[in-house]
Amino acid sequence: MTQVKDVLMLFRVVFRSVQKHSAWVEKQCQVSGAQLWVMWELLVSPGLRVGDLSKAMTIHQSTASNLVDKLEKRGFLRRERGGPDQRVVRLYLTSAGLEVVNRAPRPAQGVLMEALNSLPDEILDGLGNHLTHLVGVLDIKDENAGLEPLAEEVMHAPAQEGDKSPGKRH
């Protein structure tokens, strides 16, 4: 039983870390963690299409489109039609968007993505296999949750008062 409680506590640490980082990002630059990730992808790959962006972030195309709409309304990115096929819409950061990305806390793609990228392949493969098994035994599953940014889900949960950074402990 202790092993189950220990694993549960580790899940809580992971989710709380994501939550704190997302809240910190939002406080520092007034965009959500997922919105910052969109801008980061456009910084490293200017001219992405919404479909390319959704693949890069492993999210639904409609979710990517909603994030793009919000950022466009705030003046952080622009859409351009160009080339021989005027149906193709490409996305670019504006100077305001570039300013946000340049002053934003890192990692721009979130602490979970950074942590997963730092794991050796054999550890990541094992983690993936074990999580697949865990999802398989869940009675209630949200099969679409894998294509939603985690930071968007937890960013509105209350952060502890006085947090200055996502890693600060009290």
Give the tags.
HTH_MarR-typ; 2 strands; 8 helices; DNA-binding; Tscrpt_reg_MarR-type_CS; HTH marR-type domain-containing protein; 170 residues; DNA binding; 6% strand; Arc Repressor Mutant, subunit A; mainly alpha; two-stranded antiparallel sheet
Question: How is this structure best described in words?
Answer:
InterPro entries: HTH_MarR-typ, Tscrpt_reg_MarR-type_CS, WH-like_DNA-bd_sf, WH_DNA-bd_sf. One of its GO terms (molecular function) is DNA-binding transcription factor activity. Residues 1-156 form the HTH marR-type domain. This is HTH marR-type domain-containing protein. The protein has 170 residues and is mostly helical. It is 59% helix and 6% strand. It contains eight helices and two strands. Strands 1-2 form a two-stranded antiparallel sheet. The longest helix is centred in the N-terminal third of the chain and has 28 residues, at 2-29. The two termini are 28 Å apart.
Task: Sum this structure up briefly.
The protein has 170 residues and is mainly alpha-helical. The chain is built from 8 helices and 2 strands.
CATH homology-level superfamily of the domain at 2-110: Winged helix-like DNA-binding domain superfamily/Winged helix DNA-binding domain
Instruction: Report strand order across the widest sheet.
Output: 1-2
Q: Tell me, rounded to a whole number, the average pLDDT.
A: 82
| Overall CATH architecture of the domain at 2-110 | Orthogonal Bundle
